[in-house]
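Tokens as discussed.
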């Protein structure tokens, strides 16, 4: 008996050791550093991510001065500086219908040791489509005299809308202490739709914690906005707002009380929008002297379905596994949502509360991401099972983006006024770059072998694919998550908000020989604002790499095709 027990144990151990370790989520620390604090990040081509920072004393140099713009190469994990004219600190931005990235607004201030800087609060910076995989010859274009916003905007938000242009919302004019005391209470567009900004009652009502309003282009062309603890639907064409219920329980979700928000995946045939808002803080005061780096954040997530029945029902409340200030919500290709970054207590902004940690108003970083499954029953949607710890705090001025490869690029953090590093600094300027790699990065994946460069709306396309034999459980008709074809805007990340991020599921079938995929594009630019998109094929939760396409005509905005 004894001998038998011993040998059974030996067999079990050797089997366990011999078995390949099951693929799980992994953080991968890159050797090269970002050189600037990646406080804004946006994927601008299949291989390049554009980073912007404050113009200050970053280590990365260009033309004999510290850089504040850079391109991160996803193939080589290396950085290349960009020469930027105006201060891009706390700007917004998005890709336009013609593939150009427009960065808008920013910091009015100059930095003593860096003579190359111009004020950025009225800036428009253009990064034209870059065909070079390494970014060779690609740069930022600026002409501050002739190309600028109507109003000064620091901490604005922007998103691409149904005609491929940008709506630009809110912000402040100049420096204000902690919260918004010099507000830009207006909306404008790029390219301009009129010669004066549109006043916004919503922005007025949501003062003073309304910086970086969380805004989404809805599938009927209107724009949903949430700021402070209030929400509206803004009709761009009628210039009218419809007031929706407040976020429940006194929870506030915009800077400097940053929660995050996301438009959940849109599915055919009805594309009914639902918005999820997570984190922030339950507070009645915004006086920084009454606030602490130890003030607990909220774990509350609030979700609303934006059809008449859903609006009548109002917000449904659920909870993350932990409280988070400055979390970020990012789509996975299969329709789940990654919840990452942020801390358990405190606030955004720099050295303003009664007891900052160094200069950080926030403390107790959350290092383990969670996943939110929109289709799961209430109370069972959030899990961090199998999720690793990043080991690196990502508090104020960090960013995260899904890449066309299907993993997440996570970088940044700087709750300081310039570059502050050293062994005694608890929350330094963070230049380390990580990817968070989903389990499907380590197994054989489906491939989209080829796509047309441009896809017209409401059309059927057939493209070649390869499906590994390991993904045997094939479904012919794709409808919901986990077996799906998703059309995604990877969005623009800053200040705990991923603007323009979008996932639209497409009706799709795979041929019986598994060699081709036929799908129908979204009906119009209201469902997916015309512009660059990435298509991911997911089978059994294993996602392909993304195919980079132009959804629509590729015309300059405004365009309805
Ligand atoms: C950088 O500085 C060096 C030394 O001061 C000078 O020789 C060089 O021309 C400068 N380069 C540029 C691009 O300004
Ligand atoms: C904002 O609201 C206040 C109080 O209701 C009002 O007095 C003020 O005129 C409004 N400001 C703007 C710019 O609409
Ligand atoms: C939203 O904030 C306002 C002003 O601070 C407060 O009066 C109101 O009760 C809050 N709403 C909810 C639902 O908590
Ligand atoms: C950081 O800059 C802000 C204004 O830009 C200033 O009010 C604050 O005192 C500075 N904080 C530190 C720690 O230098
Ligand atoms: C895919 O992931 C979801 C969410 O974690 C899970 O419920 C589902 O069972 C998975 N499907 C497969 C085929 O593994
Ligand atoms: C895209 O449109 C914008 C706004 O009209 C324009 O400034 C930019 O040059 C255009 N880019 C291309 C590649 O046509």
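Sequence:
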């Amino acid at each position: 008996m004894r001998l038998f027990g011993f040998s059974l144990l030996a067999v079990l151990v050797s089997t366990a050791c011999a078995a390949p370790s099951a693929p799980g989520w992994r953080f991968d620390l890159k050797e090269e550093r970002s050189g600037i604090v990646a406080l804004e990040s946006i994927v601008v081509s299949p291989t390049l991510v554009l980073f912007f920072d404050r113009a200050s004393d970053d280590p990365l140099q260009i033309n004999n001065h510290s850089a504040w713009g850079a391109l991160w190469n996803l193939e080589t994990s290396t950085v290349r500086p960009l020469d930027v004219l105006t201060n891009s600190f706390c700007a917004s931005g998005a890709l336009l219908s013609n593939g150009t990235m427009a960065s808008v607004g920013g910091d009015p201030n100059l930095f003593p040791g860096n003579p190359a800087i111009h004020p950025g609060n009225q800036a428009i910076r253009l990064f034209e489509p870059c065909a070079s995989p390494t970014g060779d010859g690609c740069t930022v274009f600026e002409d501050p005299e002739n190309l600028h916003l109507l109003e000064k905007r620091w901490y604005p938000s922007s998103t691409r809308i149904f005609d491929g242009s940008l709506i630009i919302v809110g912000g402040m004019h100049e420096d204000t202490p902690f919260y918004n005391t010099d507000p830009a209470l207006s909306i404008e567009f790029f390219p301009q739709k009129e010669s004066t900004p549109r006043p916004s009652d919503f922005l007025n009502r949501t003062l003073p914690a309304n910086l970086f309003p969380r805004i989404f282009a809805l599938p009927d062309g209107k724009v949903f906005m949430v700021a402070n603890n209030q929400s509206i639907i803004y009709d761009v064409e009628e210039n009218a707002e419809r007031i929706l219920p407040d976020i429940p329980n006194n929870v506030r979700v915009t800077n400097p009380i940053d929660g995050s928000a996301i438009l959940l995946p849109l599915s055919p045939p009805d594309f009914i929008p639902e918005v999820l808002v997570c984190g922030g803080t339950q507070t009645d005061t915004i006086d920084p002297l009454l606030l602490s780096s130890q003030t607990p954040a909220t774990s509350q997530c609030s979700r609303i379905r934006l059809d008449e029945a859903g609006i009548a029902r109002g917000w449904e409340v659920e909870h993350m596994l932990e409280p988070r200030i400055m979390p970020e919500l990012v789509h996975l290709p299969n329709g789940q949502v990654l919840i990452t970054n942020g801390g358990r207590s405190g606030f955004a902004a720099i050295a303003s509360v009664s007891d900052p940690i160094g200069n950080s108003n926030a403390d107790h970083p959350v290092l383990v991401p969670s996943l939110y499954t929109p289709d799961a029953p209430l109370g069972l949607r959030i899990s961090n099972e199998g999720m690793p710890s990043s080991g690196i705090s990502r508090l104020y001025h960090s960013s995260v983006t899904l890449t066309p490869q299907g993993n997440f690029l996570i970088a940044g953090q700087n709750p300081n006024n310039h570059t502050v590093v050293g062994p005694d600094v608890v929350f330094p300027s963070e230049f380390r770059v990580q990817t968070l790699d989903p389990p499907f990065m380590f197994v054989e994946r489906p491939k989209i072998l080829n796509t047309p460069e441009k896809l017209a709306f409401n059309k059927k396309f057939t493209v070649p694919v390869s499906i590994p034999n390991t993904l045997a459980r094939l479904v012919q008709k794709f409808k919901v998550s986990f077996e799906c074809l998703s059309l995604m805007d990877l969005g623009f990340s800053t200040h705990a908000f991923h603007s323009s991020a979008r996932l639209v599921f497409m009706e799709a079938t795979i041929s019986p020989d598994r060699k081709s995929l036929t799908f129908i594009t979204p009906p119009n630019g209201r469902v997916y604002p015309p512009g660059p998109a990435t298509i991911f094929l997911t089978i059994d939760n294993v996602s392909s790499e993304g195919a980079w396409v132009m959804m629509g005509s590729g015309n300059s905005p405004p365009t309805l095709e």
